[in-house]
Each structure stands twice: as structure tokens, then as C-alpha cells.
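Slack export, channel: ligand-projects

TW: morning all. Re-posting the request from yesterday since it got buried. We need the structure predicted with the small molecule present, not the apo form. The ligand is coenzyme A; the SMILES is in the block with the sequence. No rush, but it would help planning for next week.
GE: picking it up
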Amino acid sequence: MTAAGYPLIAVAARGGTLTPALPAGLRCENDSHPAGRKDKKAIMADVYPIRPVTDDEFPAYRAVAEHAFHIGPPAERDLPLIGRLFEADRSLAAFDPALPVSAGPVGTAGAFTFQMSVPGAVVPTAGVTAVAVLPTYRRRGILRSLMRRQLADIAARGEPIAALWASETPLYGRFGYGRATTHASFVLRRGEGALAPWVPADPGLRLRIASPAVVIAELGKVYDTVLATQPGFCSRNDAWWDRLLKDPPEDRNGFSPLRCLLAEDECGPRGYALYAGQGRWDENTFLPDSRLVVRELTAADPAAAAALWRDLLSRDLVAEVIARLRPADDPVLYQLLDPRRARPQVADGLWVRIVDLPHALAARRYCCPVDVVLEVTDELLPGNAGRWRLRAAGLSGSAGSGAPAGAVSCERTSDPADVALGIRELGAAYLGGTRLGMLAAAGLVTELRAGTLAPLSAAMSWDPAPWCPKIF
Ligand SMILES: CC(C)(COP(=O)(O)OP(=O)(O)OC[C@H]1O[C@@H](n2cnc3c(N)ncnc32)[C@H](O)[C@@H]1OP(=O)(O)O)[C@@H](O)C(=O)NCCC(=O)NCCS
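GE: finished. pasting the full C-alpha cell output, ligand included:
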């Protein structure tokens, strides 16, 4: 338990009464005090009891998402893998008390137990997933109720942060999730993928085509190397690798089997690309018109990344290379001779929710020294609200204070605040990719004492920028 005190967080998030006295200005009008709630939908939602489902109830649980996402049931062959990934004890399902339990849930939310890379550390993270409400039960506050209960459960497990991919961007800000990463899709046409001559090339590297399943250990080695320093990467166990490499012929849509290109030297693997091709010809012109889709490309160093891209972007007969879920500031955009030709399409990626503020802020590292008092608002988890003094020594220690490199503390204080911000903005900045200075320019963060925001914004920023290569 931390200074935030997860019981306080959990009680509030479950919609219970907060007995500990909070300063009046920090009390939550909407959620923490049922008597004081203004949100009628939140009150209505409480009539839909929420509980985890059992393994037997999984088909009914999944059916909610099938209706909500307009998809069919999974293929029989996929069920074992889905079962390995499903964490029944972390599932939440809302039921209509007017119906028999056999009618199944009307709303769902789940979570995966991840370890996620954050600036300078790897922290336990709830990977929120399977959020869905039956179309016939929408806009009655069921999502709100599920989110509140889920945050309480995450706090009780001691996970300092939660992260998710949003189906639609307006959904999660109201629950304190902030937009923490961006990703980009690239489309490069034939002849547009030349790398600049000054890009590093390592003659010691060799490229090898392999079947992904055969080189899974090599893939894991590269991935784990990158994960150690790449905020936004989530730990992968065997089931997650199986999900990434899943490639049933029925799902290929005319593409080849998934293939792997490994970049390695005498010491082992340094990078990989997972890709599939679609051999095509223009029937009128008889010109080659093949496509190549990169499912994932991960490299531990710039020369390995360049070697992989150089090969894929120059494949014979390929009219178009498509790479999705790339970092928006992908280094390849500085390796390409003509980066505009990558036609980047940028969208939001991971949304981060700080669940246990002092734990989360003390768990990551800060790139330069900072000593600042934050005034934080958090309607759903009032245990996070109030003033916190964040002291961090930076990566090379704090000159004068004697604090060792990387030292961080985050404690409650009654000192005057320097910077005021919401938990959503703190979550957006947490992985180091969304600058607090930019959020201040948007009017979402307020500098209360001149000269305190810029050092905080700089200290929270991080290289490399966060990137999550897989939707969960
Ligand atoms: C999105 C979804 C879960 C919302 O569930 P719901 O029970 O209708 O949501 P609630 O009634 O609790 O609404 C909570 C708030 O979100 C808002 N909201 C809900 N769906 C929204 C949407 N699609 N776009 C914008 N706002 C939305 C509500 O207006 C409400 O706003 P308020 O806080 O101002 O009162 C549900 O519509 C759904 O299953 N959609 C399809 C699947 C999906 O997109 N799931 C999310 C996966 S990340």
C-alpha cells in the first residue's frame, strides 16, 4: 500500500462512501459520495450487478463483445488460444437483474496482467480489454459502472497503472485515461523506399528468412532486449507470442503465410520483421502489383533496423509496402531518403490511467532533476487527488543534493503547488511521449509558480518516445 492508500481508491471507485476526510475542494461530486452524485446514469448503472464470470460463462461474456463490435464468434480452432489469454478472475460482467443469469451479461470489461516498460523501469500494468455493452443496454451508465469497479480492482491488486487501446477517442478521458502514445501507418510504393546513403550499415549483419514458429526464441530475445528501454512495450509470454504469430490460412485474405526476416550476426539475433506478401499482377498492363504487409518489425540497433527495412522496401515485384502500428516518430522516417513517401497516417495508441499516483510516479525515471509540487485532480480515485511533491534526481544524479542517479520520491505535501493538472494529463505524460508543456498550451495543465512547468515537462519526456506495437 502506498501513501495514496488503495482502500481509499477502491472504496471511491466502487461508488462507496469515503469516510476519510478530504479537503472539501477535492471531494468527488459525481462518484465518491452517492448522496452527492449528480450523474444520474451512474446511479442507474448500479442496478446492474457486476461480478467476474466463470470459465463456463465465457461464451456468454464474449457474446457481448460480438454484438458490440459487430463480429461473429471466434473460430473453433482459436478457442484454445483465447482460453489461454483470458483471465477469468479479472473479467467483469454486468447483469440485468430483471433477467435470469442464464440470459448472460449485458456489459463486460476485462484485463490482462502485463508488465509494461515505462521510462527507466518495467511496472505491473492492467491491460484493459473486452470493454463492451450490449447495443440494447447502451447509455445507461453501464460502462461508467464497469470502469469504476475495474479501477477499484486494479488498485486492490497493487497495479499502479492501467492501459488500453480505445475503439473511439472520446470514450476514456472521462475515466482519467490520457492519450500516451501515437502510432503511424506507412505506405511506400515501388521505388520509394531507398534509405539515405548515410544510414549505418553493418557488414557483420546477415539476413535470414525463417518460419516464425521456428525462430520464436530469437524473436523473444530481440523483443525483450528492446522492451528493457522502450516505453509502451508489454511483456509477452508464450500465449502472446502465439497470438502475434497466429496465421490460419482462412484469415490470410489472399496473402502468403506469415514469414520472418531475421537480422543476426555471430552473436545472435539483432532484429526481425514479420510480414506477409500478396503476389499480384495488373491484368491490363501485366505489371507486377504485389503487396507486402509488415506485421511487426523490431530491432535492437539502428543498423539492424536499416538492414530489415532496406531488404523489405526493395523486394522485387512489390508495388506497395504497408506497415501499420509503427511509432509515429519511427527512426525509419529519418533513414528513408524520401520520408514524405511513407505517407504517415497518425492516430492515438495507448491510453494510460494512473491508478496509484505515488507508486506510479516513483516507479519511473526522469531524464533530468526535478523538484515540484503537483496539485492533482482525480474525480474517480480521490486517493490520487491533492498535492504531491515529486523529487527526482535525473539520470545523472542531482548536483548538490547528493541524490544518486535515478532516485525518485513522490510524497504528499501541504506546500504550495507549482503545477496543477488532472490525472488524465498526468497519464498522458507518464510514458514520456506527451509533453506537459504542450498540454499547458492546450489549457489542460496550469503553471502556478513561474518557471516550474518547463523543468517538469522536460524531466517527464523520454527517449525513445513510447510505442506499443500490438493492440490488445
Ligand atoms: C462504448 C460503450 C462501451 C459505451 O457503453 P455505455 O454503457 O453505453 O456507456 P455509458 O452509458 O456508461 O456512458 C458513459 C459516458 O460515455 C459516453 N459515451 C458512451 N459511448 C460513447 C461513444 N461511443 N462516444 C462518445 N461518448 C460515449 C456517454 O455519453 C457517457 O457520457 P457522460 O460521462 O457525459 O455521462 C458501448 O457503446 C459499446 O459497447 N460500444 C461498442 C464497442 C466499443 O467501442 N467498446 C469500447 C472498446 S475500447
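GE: first-pass observations. The chain has three domains: 6-181, 183-348, 356-460. DSSP finds 13 helices and 19 strands in the chain.
TW: perfect, thank you
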